[in-house]
Amino acid sequence: MLMSMTGFGRGESSDDTYNFTVEVKSLNHRYNDIIIKMPKHINYMEENINKMIRKRVRRGRVEVYIDLKYINDNNVNVNVDIPLATAYKEALENMRDNLNIDEDININHIIKMPEVVKTERKKDDENKIWSCLKEALDEALNNLINMRCKEGEQIFNDITKKTMNIKNMIEEIEKRAPIVVEEYREKLEKRVGELLKNQYELDENKLANEVVFFADKSSIDEEVVRLYSHVDQLFGCLNSNESVGRKLDFLIQEMNREINTIGSKSSDIAISRLVVDFKSELEKIREQIQNVE
């Protein structure tokens, strides 16, 4: 089933120590581009996160936002540099006395000084924290995929309908092509007759040669065959479980090339109108597949 490249998913997981909230947003992109924003002290998990996402999302820009809260935060050590604090206190007192400032030095002045108070987080249990994060990420990806599938189903229905319209147009063009040659013969014969004013005998061989030359020059058989082939491949892609966005884009380009050739070969008004309608419908499909994974 076709899948859209746009979607959003959210997941949350907790244990006795960690609480993870994960939000995943995907947008249109030519390749598989993953952007992860998370607390710096768990950056070592980025590779695992990337692998998990790439298994589920094959194309599109994926933005991941990870929030971590500690439920029982006993993993932080607070260290006070007493010698440094003492040095700051003495320096402040000296500055106060020299500047004749009538103010006492208190702890609030010292604690604001650089490097006096340092917090250091104890090393997390990597397996435990990954287990909690993985659960939240998995939930977020499931919700993301569900949204992408629902939108993909709508795109599938729309492209299928438009592709059937295109196939019907190809059939009309194919039926019209031999009629164009016959009409050309009749018009040519009539025109030559008018010019000769029936005073001279019409050379049937020369007339036939001219009609054959016109038929060969305006033949669109190859283009029609290729268009049918492209339509069949397009239907095949729509029903594939693979990532088909790029292939669909290529097929649309090739179909546009073939219909342009038909338009340039044919001088028939009916076929020209079909070519215009065909290109209009093809452009609508092209716009849709820009959002297909």
From TrEMBL:
Example GO molecular function: RNA endonuclease activity
Cofactor requirement: a divalent metal cation
Residues in Endoribonuclease YicC-like N-terminal domain copies: 3-155
InterPro entries xrefs: YicC-like_C, YicC-like_N, YicC/YloC-like
The keyword Hydrolase belongs to this UniProt entry's keyword annotation: yes
Record keywords: Endonuclease, Hydrolase, Nuclease
Domain Endoribonuclease YicC-like C-terminal as annotated: residue spans: 173-293
Entry keyword annotation includes Repeat: no
Stated family: Belongs to the YicC/YloC family.
Protein name: YicC family protein
Organism whose genome encodes this protein: Anaerosalibacter massiliensis
